[in-house]
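Q: Please design a sequence for this.
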């Protein structure tokens, strides 16, 4: 049986809750910490990015539990100096950026330490929540209580670290929040345009929400309100309205959510 040794005290999130590696202690591999069914369910959730309650049978091509929950790496955020301990297998499986850092012969791999500059701890904490639980909302949160700004910040993090499955979940959450509150969150438009490239699917989402769910006429109270939005945003809305002049229902819009997802060899197309 492989053992892992930790020389310092740390608090580590994993799918079974929180456990503590005491100074000088030795922890058994995680297979011996939880029932086998829970371990299998976690593999399915971690690979497919589905919450635990929607998991299905494991396929033989999926990484093993030992591969996903292998050695821990230290991730340090600057300038807050907050430290997170995360399983390398999970990071590498979901993020091409972390995979490059930790599987190539770079400094991060040699030291088992990743330093992320100018990284906000709050979105990163939600990234950990997503890695281990497949969600971005805390247990005491709901779609109505999380702000659109927090959701966009999480999207930016996932975009920077190349975590498309998390980006897709955030897109779905933004749409669900808009439907629940019957509001189009254009208040974050400038923030999104400042932090994303022109081809961003988050930009496309905001434009098409305004074009397909907004009023038939794009009007502003005055020049001050108009100047709050990027000109390219307004032009794109008008172009989309011309292409699709008849508004669609929220139900129909939600069915189209895959149009705003990222799919590649790591994230297969949706079965909507």
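A: Design:
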């Amino acid at each position: 049986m492989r053992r892992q040794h930790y020389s310092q005290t740390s608090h580590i999130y994993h799918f079974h809750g929180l456990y503590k590696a005491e100074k000088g202690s030795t922890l058994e591999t995680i297979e011996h910490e939880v029932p086998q069914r829970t371990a299998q369910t976690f593999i399915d959730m971690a690979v497919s990015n589905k919450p635990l309650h929607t998991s299905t049978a494991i396929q033989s091509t999926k990484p093993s539990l030992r591969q996903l929950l292998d050695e821990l790496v230290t991730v340090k955020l600057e300038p807050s100096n907050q430290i997170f301990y995360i399983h390398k297998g999970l990071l590498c499986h979901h993020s091409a950026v972390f995979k490059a850092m930790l599987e190539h012969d770079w400094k991060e791999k040699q030291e088992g330490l990743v330093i992320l500059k100018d990284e906000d701890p709050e979105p990163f904490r939600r990234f950990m929540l997503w890695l281990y639980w497949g969600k971005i909302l805390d247990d005491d949160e709901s779609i109505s209580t999380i702000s659109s700004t927090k959701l966009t910040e999480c999207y930016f993090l996932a975009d920077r670290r190349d975590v498309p499955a998390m980006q897709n979940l955030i897109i779905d959450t933004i749409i669900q929040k808009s439907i629940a509150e019957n509001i189009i969150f254009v208040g974050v438009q400038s923030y999104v345009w400042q932090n994303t490239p022109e081809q961003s699917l988050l930009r496309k989402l905001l434009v098409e929400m305004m074009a397909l769910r907004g009023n038939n006429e794009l009007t502003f109270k005055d020049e001050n309100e108009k100047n709050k939005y990027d000109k390219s945003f307004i032009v794109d809305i008008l172009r989309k309205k011309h292409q699709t002049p008849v508004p669609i229902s929220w139900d129909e819009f939600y069915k189209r959510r895959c149009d705003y997802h990222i799919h590649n060899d790591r994230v297969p197309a949706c079965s909507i």
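Q: Thanks. Anything notable?
A: Residues 1-43, 51-60 have pLDDT under 50 and may be disordered. DSSP finds 13 helices and seven strands in the chain.
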